[in-house]
């Protein structure tokens, strides 16, 4: 990752923030310039998992720069070719649906659209309770889109949440390296 500029977008799957945020630090420690991007919801919502302000402060401290949190800030990502790789982690069912259907009405979806126009890789780390329900068709559609890759994923609680899937975040660094080579890390579906 040394010398690369990596966008790291977080969507509103707040229960995964404590798992995901350390990977911002890992990327920075490996020499990447990390550009943080937060969805409108992730940027402004206090939850039982923590306050929006504390998450924002932690992310900006790790990345050493302000968070992109408006569409106006996200739009130049494409024309200025600002990123080598864009990671969306966690990627919610809502974001999956928008990406699969070409809807760019949020900071994160606009960042992805802007980045893809340059034929550069996007890595999605799914975290949604309906991945094997309503979001399944969107995951299937996105698996066929050029330059979109997935962090390997699996059911997180099949007994109590039978449609829920979450990325294996420990495999995020390897999935990022594979995406930069134009490859999907396999297996996509894991234990």
Q: Mind telling me the CATH superfamily name?
A: Flavin prenyltransferase-like
User: How large is the radius of gyration?
Assistant: 15 Å
Query: Overall mean pLDDT score?
Result: 95
CATH architecture: 3-Layer(aba) Sandwich
Please state the overall shape, judged from the principal axes of the Cα atoms: globular
The level of helicity is 25-40%
pLDDT < 50 stretches: none
- Give the percentage of residues in beta strands: 15-25%
User: Looking at CATH, which topology would you report?
Assistant: Rossmann fold
Number of domains: 1
Structural class: alpha/beta
Q: What summary fits the major beta sheet?
A: 7 strands, mixed
Task: Summarize the structure in words.
The chain is of the alpha/beta class and 191 residues long. The protein has a single domain (5-180), classed as Rossmann fold, CATH 3.40.50.1950. Helix content is 36%, strand content 18%. The protein contains eight helices and seven strands. The chain has helices spanning 17-29, 40-44, 52-63, 71-74, 93-100, 107-116, 136-143, 172-180, and strands at residues 5-10, 33-38, 85-91, 122-128, 148-150, 153-155, 165-167. Strands 1, 2, 3, 4, 5, 6 and 7 form a seven-stranded mixed beta sheet that branches. Helix 1 (17-29) runs parallel beside helix 3 (52-63) and helix 5 crosses helix 7 (136-143). The longest helix has 13 residues, at 17-29. The chain is globular and about 40 Å long. The model has no long low-confidence stretch (mean pLDDT 95).
């Amino acid at each position: 990752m040394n010398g690369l500029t990596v966008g790291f977008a977080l969507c509103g799957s707040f229960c995964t923030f404590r798992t995901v945020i350390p990977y911002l630090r890992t990327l920075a420690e490996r020499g990447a310039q990390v550009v943080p991007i937060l969805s409108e919801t992730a940027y402004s919502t206090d939850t039982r998992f923590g306050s929006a302000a504390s998450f924002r402060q932690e992310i900006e401290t790790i990345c050493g720069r302000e968070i992109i949190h408006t569409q106006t800030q996200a739009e130049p990502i494409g024309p200025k070719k600002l990123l080598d790789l864009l990671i969306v982690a966690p990627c919610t069912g809502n974001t999956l649906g928008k990406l699969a259907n070409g809807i760019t009405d949020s900071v994160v979806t606009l960042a992805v659209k802007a980045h893809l126009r340059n034929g550069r890789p996007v890595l999605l780390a799914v975290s949604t309770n309906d991945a094997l329900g309503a979001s399944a068709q969107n995951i299937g559609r996105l698996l066929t889109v050029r330059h979109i890759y997935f962090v390997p994923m699996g059911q997180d609680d099949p007994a109590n949440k039978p449609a829920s899937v979450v990325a294996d975040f420990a495999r995020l660094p390897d999935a990022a390296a594979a995406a930069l080579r134009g490859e999907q890390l396999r297996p996509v579906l894991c234990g």
